[in-house]
Amino acid sequence: MKNNDEVRDIVDKLTLDEKIGMIHGAAFFRTEGVARLGIPPLVMSDGTMGVRQEFKPGTWKPAKHSEDAATYLPCGSALASTWNRSLAFKAGSVLGEEARGRGKDIILSPGINIKRSPLCGRNFEYLSEDPYLTGEIAAPYIRGIQEWDVAACVKHFAANNQETERLWVDVRVDEKVLREIYLPAFYDAVKKGGAACVMAAYNRLYGRHCSMNHYLLNDILREEWGFGGLVISDWGGVHDTVKTAEGELDIEMSVTNDFDNYFFADQLKIAVREGKVSEKAIDSKVGRILALMMQLHMLGGQRKKGCYNTQEHRETALAIARESVVLLKNENSRLPLHPEKIHRLLLIGENADLKHADGGGSAEIKALYEITPWMGISSLLGGNTEITYAQGYFREVKKSDSDADWQEKSLENGGGRVSRGEKESKIMERKREKLRREAIAQAKDADAVIFVGGLNHDIDSEGKDRQDMRLPYAQEELIRELLEARPDTVLVFIAGSPVEMNSFIQKADAIVWSYYNGMEGGTALAEVLFGKTNPSGKLAETFFKHLSDCPAHALGEFPGGTAVEYKEGRHVGYRFSERFDVAPAFSFGSGLSYTSFSIEDALYNPSAGTVRCTVRNTGLSGGKETVQVYRRIRDEGGFCRELAGFEKVEVPAGENRAVKIVLREIEEEDQELYIGDSLLTSVKI
Ligand code: BGC
After folding, report:
1. Is 520 left (phi over 0), alpha (psi -120 to 50) or beta?
2. How far does residue 112's CA lie from ligand 1's centre (Å)?
């Protein structure tokens, strides 16, 4: 109440000019303040893997100062693969504390769009194909951020599931499906996480841009969900002054430096004067901005000061990285490798030696440092092991000065599709062949061979989608030949989205998966490979065998044209593979460990909405297991399953732990619950 009165008092004192200054960008990441009333500007920053670097005023050229390097956290997909809510909270807390330490008020994170197709260029930023898992990770993450008097801005609301034509594409999705698959994580972000800001997505939904979509922003977000925080446009996502200003969007941001030409700037002033937009509508927006400023203690009171690049933050980055690595395959107990038996180790593949922090679009990070796999392995093994490196393949290095300010031009093409980052020419083919031959020749003499390949941010990037699911740069040929020469080669992939593995998957004993795993990614990977960390990551998305097996491609459209129809309906990821019996390469929720677990005495308590069980570690090393409960749901002409609850637990070798899993709310009456593949209970409530 007191705040409401205070807000009203301040709004009454503001001139129209001042109010308008507060609701649009006056710089790329800042609005205008009102100095005479002690109202500061709102300062924002990307991003999803850490606080982004600074830019030279009015340009997208990096400032290149020394003070803006930051902790580089594992990307969203990596975080989700931990299935660990408390790590999600810690990740958010690092981000919030660093954002505050860097003087930011709003951090444009998390990105929680559902992974509808493996080709979406921003999948690495997003969490999962499953709405419940996404919400369960996003909510604590947001709470972690907001502990620091910094607002989280959850993005991109909503149905922003591709980059191709991202500024205009019209998403056509059944409303029931929208509510079942594409909205719940946003609901959780707002209701359970308490997100103070929401970013309206670029795309259109049911024919209307999200930034002025009454159904989305008013009917659902404000009315149904009771969201009272700020709605901020994506950068350049506003297309109309009157409709947007009369709607629920509070702040317009963009990528061009003609700030007075923004829809919410001079044009809005004229529209108000001409009576096309009511000043009351502007007052509501300003009121919400002031309320947020009070919540963040920007208008007085003790505000937390934050800090960045602390040792503790780096430890959190490492803790997340450790739990996010997924062991996909481990035949013949090929892993872990035993350091004492390895005198000569051969590392093959560009990703062993490549840093990823500074790519991917607005998620890019000027990392304080980044431990590559080579560095991590080398540091773990020490000086008595001889490590040789063979590049094996190469990418086209395309970074040029004009790439540095890509964002300035990001409204020009509306996003597109990218080929696999390679121009197949005879010269390149020959160069690749030479590298391949060199690698294979060296492989014969080593005690152990580790291949580290995958993708990079030339491919996993904002503004473009992948064209296919294949590994680029002729990696498949290299892997196949390697496995012929050295069947014991360990395969490691670093990427932001699944890749096809059909041509070698049978032959490989050991396959390890890492998303872009933050500044300590190489350390975590080395620890997993050599058994210092027992892997516990589980896939938060289905790895289909072929692109044509993916529901958006098998049943729906991707990327569509000016419109895209989500004809696959609710059948996203594992909901599709289970319903239509399509065996994936690796399923949602899968991930191996160096030990084994058994789940015993599972008991469902319908009135409490919980499942209790005992997790026993039946192997020889301590480890972490994620118990996953699924429920069977009716589905047109059949059934499919959905994640109903999960809990991660650490169990020392030979011991057991009691676990309680709180289930998500259940609407249907008939319940069949499963843990893994075993039917837990079939009850009628
Ligand atoms: C992206 C947003 C980002 C914004 C500011 C846009 O291109 O879609 O996710 O926060 O730019 O950099």
Report:
1. alpha
2. 13
Ligand 1 contacts CB of residue 410 (under 6 A): yes
**Taking CA 272 as the corner, what is the angle to CA 268 and CA 276, rounded to the nearest 5 degrees?**
100
Kindly give the distance from the C-alpha atom of residue 154 to the centroid of ligand 1, in angstroms, as a whole number. 11
pTM: 0.97
Ligand 1 pocket mutation pick from 234, 254, 257 by most atoms within 8 angstroms of CB: 234
CA 216 to chain CA centroid, Å, is: 22
| CA 421-422-425 angle, 5° bins | 170
Domains annotated on the chain, with CATH: 1-41+197-295 (3.20.20.300), 311-538 (3.40.50.1700), 595-684 (2.60.40.10)
Q: Show which residues are catalytic.
A: 234
In whole angstroms, what is the distance from residue 23 CA to residue 26 CA? 9
Q: Which amino acid is at 532?
A: K
CB of 234 shorter than 6 A to ligand 1: yes
> Closest Cα to atom 12, ligand 1: which residue?
362
Q: What is the pLDDT of residues 132-172, one digit of tens each?
A: 999 999 999 999 999 999 999 999 999 999 999 999 999 99
Residue 234 C-alpha to ligand 1 middle, in angstroms?
6
**Which residue is closest in CA terms to ligand 1's atom 4?**
235
